[in-house]
Amino acid sequence: MDFLIxxxxxxxxxxxxxxxxxxxxxxxxKSSSVLNFAHGELLAAGAFIFLTLVxxxxxxxxxxxxxxxxxxxxxxxxIERLFLRPLIGEPLIYVIMLTVGLASIFKGLMLLIWGxxxxxxxxxLPAHLSIQMGSINIPPVYxxxxxxxxxxxxxxxFFFKFSSQGIYMRSVADNQTASLSLGVNVRxxxxxxxxxxxxxxxxxxxxxxIINGINVHDLSSxxxxxxxxxxxxxxxxxxxxxxxxxxxxxxxxxxxxxxxPSLRDVVPYxxxxxxxxxxxxxxxxxxxxxxx
Amino acid sequence: MRKLHFxxxxxxxxxxxxxxxxxxxxxxxxxxxxxxxLLFALVPVISGPYVLYVINIIGIASIAAIGLNILVGYxxxxxxxxxxxxxxxxxxxxxxxxxxxxxxxxxxxxxxLVTALIGMIFGIPSVRLKGLYLTIATLAGQFIIxxxxxxxxxxxxxxxxxxxxxxxxxxxxxxxxxxFFYIIFLSLILMTYIAVNIMRTRYGRAFxxxxxxxxxxxxxxxxxxxxxxxxxxxxxxxxxxxGAIWAxxxxxxxxxxxxxxxxxxxxxxxxxxxxxxxxxxxxxxxxITVLNEILRWLTDVFMNTxxxxxxxxxxxxxxxxxxxxxxxxxxxxxxxxxAEVWRIIRSSFRLWPFSY
Lengths: 292, 356
Prior knowledge:
The complex is a heterodimer of chains A (292) and B (356).
Chain A (H helix, E strand, L loop, with lengths): L1 H31 L6 H18 L4 H24 L7 H23 L16 E3 L2 E3 L1 H23 L1 H11 L1 H6 L4 H27 L3 H18 L4 H22 L7 H12 L14
Antiparallel strand pairs in A: 1-2
Chain B lengths: L15 H5 L5 H21 L2 H26 L7 H17 L5 H20 L1 H4 L4 H19 L1 H4 L5 E2 L4 E2 L2 E2 L2 H23 L3 H11 L1 H6 L4 H27 L1 E2 L6 H14 L4 H28 L9 H19 L3 H15 L5
Antiparallel strand pairs in B: 1-4, 2-3
């Protein structure tokens, strides 16, 4: 029984992280309908910038956190400006292949700088954040990941619903040409969505790094696990990303706990194929009906 | 003999027959035949074992890249599972050869068919929706196939790998790089011939129509999903065919090489070579394979001469970097790939000195 509840707690916390990671992905898809294959590398970039600031530059944690967020924000901006802006108006296949290329570049760069080793952050989270329920112990990282997950979910919910930038983003995703003609600055929308996506990715990278340690290969493979999450939740739904993340996270921990640890990494993709067969637009995604 | 005629200065086609011609000029036809004769007569004689090995690998990669190009370049569907399908072909070939004792010339096409079937299973999800769903389904396919190859031990012997018997063709034992050179390049020519001609039939034109505008294509009466599935099956067949030849050539295979990196490598070949251009796939395969070999050679030189003593230099990150940069630079500056570069070079020679 305890094992079950512990798995449940682990699954929910990991699920929240997947949801957080997926949120940045959905952000880009929502504003430009681009599948970002470099998302895992963005996660890793955030984790490594934070690592360098904390261990090498020895900055206080809070300052390092703020600088990392600012840094990833700028990184997203630069990526958009350098690589994606020349491709506005080109077929989507080029943009997606470009993100595949970017993923290779970032992975190579990070491997060159930090190598393929496993790093861990110094222990800095206050211990009193952990929650003790009977024999079940929820470590502080998980508490923080859940809090941040909920925080960003509401923040983005309001952002897309009420702020003018959020509404611009939705309009661009819906129809680029029409929103251009209505005076939406499409370039700024792209730049902003990439910047915000990179910021969210960086932050989830840090939390993932606290839980699993920081390793280029591990973190970039999380970027690929985002695909089952967003397909399950619906490619264009922020809330769906969280729900999808939760389901995938639970599924993974339960398969790992009860069936076999090696199956754990494949189960999301098996589910993915079934979702594509049964309900391809996901749980909360927009159902597009197109008739000729 | 007909008179040799050269490129006209513009598009003066008057009928469908002219549109369908493969060689626009007799000069092009002669050049292709001459270079093929040279390839078969000279290359295996003058090149050493290492060079011949690289050329063979280029040939195998070209077959798989042509298959991927039919899907990506002509039908407009991105596949991230081509490396895994290549692996399925290799394992299918190996299992046919060891467990069922099927001769070489049957095992290779059968491996292609098995791969096409498995490819279609992962292509089915794309039937429901258009757009990028096939990409995601193939990504799932990549991971699931990798898992099955490693864990279905009764069939694939897991991480131990399979050792293949020697390939024999009509009683002749195929051994060494030179024998395989002929096999590989004869099949490359055959597969190129098939691919070029598929693209001239209604199927090929339907693929192109789907790529350019799928709504219009459906309006014209093309059943999109059937054709997408067909394109996917053809592309997987090519991957499986190439994989099986590769397995015979390598003699022993393990599950390791067929990872996501290989899939990205094939995509890079198609993009760098030129999407929607069969000859481009061969250019791309050559480029990537040679790039790989050069990078390996460079790291060897750096390691052995001690220029970078103390620096932990491994090939993986540099390869990733070089790969990423070639893909990104080609997309940004020459999205139509090496095939377009080749066309520009040719036409600048032709138009000299009055090109403007």
